[in-house]
């Protein structure tokens, strides 16, 4: 049944734009589609002199039988927890559902140019949605809604007003359904939480051939982080075996956010190394330092293993 539905040609409502209104990029010599179902959202597969491309359908607002485009989106934060209620003007009818999308960016201030792509957020049969734990502090959000039924859709609404979660603050309903920001505690600094500790910290080592060792330290990204990790900070310190509490030297190195391993060269034999990895995030001028993950590397035990292998007991 699913294969049949997917393979069945679908004619979306609306019509293709006039060829005279298409740009050079719209009329590229390429068969990018063969039917409307190959095009996203309200786009139709439109043929032109040099091929076929997906174009935004025209005349959707006058096509009979389609649900109206939702309007008047309001976003309100509840007093406790990261729970957000979203409402819009729309009807309730059998086999009618709403698709909610969101886009976002990180930062203190809202910037239209920094917003990412639209992403699906929620599906509802009612003109409202409740998002629990789906939004994070330190980010700005916009929402839009499309009403869809068996006949199709007229497309998405205009974006909502920019919205960001507050810490120590809450929203109340204002005139005409607008959201009014009310300060709950003036002394609470609005700031997202630092990243969690890196996960699954492991280390392997082997001799380098010159009396020293080379260690490979690996980890995984933190499980929880309000903001994207900007980079990692790696610490390693050498300690004498007979004085395990006394560090000889602490080394530090930054690692890019998309790298989750580091090679530690020139590790000394018969030494205990204390290794730590910390995730860092940036929020405006504030650097958020996460909790460190730690492990030990004992090159003395490695030396004993290597010696026993090279000089086995008779």
From TrEMBL:
<dbReference type="InterPro" id="IPR013783">
    <property type="entry name" value="Ig-like_fold"/>
</dbReference>
<dbReference type="InterPro" id="IPR042447">
    <property type="entry name" value="Anosmin-1"/>
</dbReference>
<dbReference type="InterPro" id="IPR008197">
    <property type="entry name" value="WAP_dom"/>
</dbReference>
<dbReference type="GO" id="GO:0030414">
    <property type="term" value="F:peptidase inhibitor activity"/>
</dbReference>
<feature type="domain" description="Fibronectin type-III">
    <location>
        <begin position="197"/>
        <end position="302"/>
    </location>
</feature>
<dbReference type="GO" id="GO:0005576">
    <property type="term" value="C:extracellular region"/>
</dbReference>
<feature type="domain" description="WAP">
    <location>
        <begin position="9"/>
        <end position="58"/>
    </location>
</feature>
<dbReference type="GO" id="GO:0009986">
    <property type="term" value="C:cell surface"/>
</dbReference>
<dbReference type="GO" id="GO:0030182">
    <property type="term" value="P:neuron differentiation"/>
</dbReference>
<dbReference type="InterPro" id="IPR036116">
    <property type="entry name" value="FN3_sf"/>
</dbReference>
<dbReference type="Pfam" id="PF00041">
    <property type="entry name" value="fn3"/>
</dbReference>
<protein>
    <submittedName>
        <fullName>Uncharacterized protein</fullName>
    </submittedName>
</protein>
<dbReference type="Pfam" id="PF00095">
    <property type="entry name" value="WAP"/>
</dbReference>
<dbReference type="InterPro" id="IPR003961">
    <property type="entry name" value="FN3_dom"/>
</dbReference>
<feature type="domain" description="Fibronectin type-III">
    <location>
        <begin position="69"/>
        <end position="170"/>
    </location>
</feature>
<dbReference type="InterPro" id="IPR036645">
    <property type="entry name" value="Elafin-like_sf"/>
</dbReference>
<feature type="region of interest" description="Disordered">
    <location>
        <begin position="188"/>
        <end position="207"/>
    </location>
</feature>
